[in-house]
Every structure is written in C-alpha cells, then in structure tokens.
Amino acid sequence: MIQESNKPHVFNLKSIGSSDLGYITVAEYQNQISFEIKRVYWTYYTPNQVTRGHHAHKVLQQCIFAVSGKIEFELINPNGEKLNFILDSPEKGLYIPKMYWRTIKFSHNAVLLCLASEIYVEDDYIRDFDEFINYKFK
C-alpha cells in the first residue's frame, strides 16, 4: 500500500507480464492507493514541453501515472518549498496530497492518468499562485 503521508512521493507498482506478451500494472484502493478513487481522467496529445497545471487543490488527493512518455512535475507547498519529480515508466506513480501547487511538463506523446479522491468541484481549485501562498485553512 502507498505509504501514509501528507507529502508528495513516488511509488512503484508491480508490473506483470513479459516482452513476448506485454505487461499489466494494477492499482487498487486499499492495496496500492490509500484513498477511495472517485474520479479517473487522462490527458493526452499535449504538445511537447507545454507546461500545464498551474493550480492546487484544497481537498483533492491524486495518484498520477505516465502511462506513456515522460512527465515532469514541480510541486510547491504553501511554505514555498519546491519538489521535483519525473514519471517515465507506467509502473511508477506520484502521490500528490492536497495543497500542493503543481506545474506539469509533457514529453511528446505522453499520456497522464490520474486517480482522484474527489469528483470535479471547481471550488476545490486554487488557480492563482499568490492566493495559494496566502490561503488560510478553514
């Protein structure tokens, strides 16, 4: 199971298969994912080296995978501390807890798969960096 943590971290999932047949990697709630999955989405056909993200979430937690290509993350907590992560393998995931500002860069043909703890709620997003840094927990 993913380590219980309120900090972002990379984790690895088991890959099953062979080069002759292909591979499968599985992520299950309570086995590898520590939160109930309420939404799944994927991002694809993002032009090479376009920067996306530019937001944080008040409540939402995520586990993100690069099922194809390479995806680079810069995460910033409310204290301004920066963390950098690279996803470059389908069995490698990144846990992002609430209240981390993120910017994301995609390689050519990268596909991002996200397992999210909440359904989409626009009010959960903080889209202004200064507002994020000055956000007071309610």
TrEMBL record:
GO terms for molecular function: isomerase activity. Keywords: Isomerase. Residues 9-136 form the Sugar 3,4-ketoisomerase QdtA cupin domain. SUPFAM superfamilies: RmlC-like cupins. Pfam families: FdtA. It comes from the Bacteria. This is dTDP-6-deoxy-3,4-keto-hexulose isomerase FdtA. The keyword Isomerase applies.
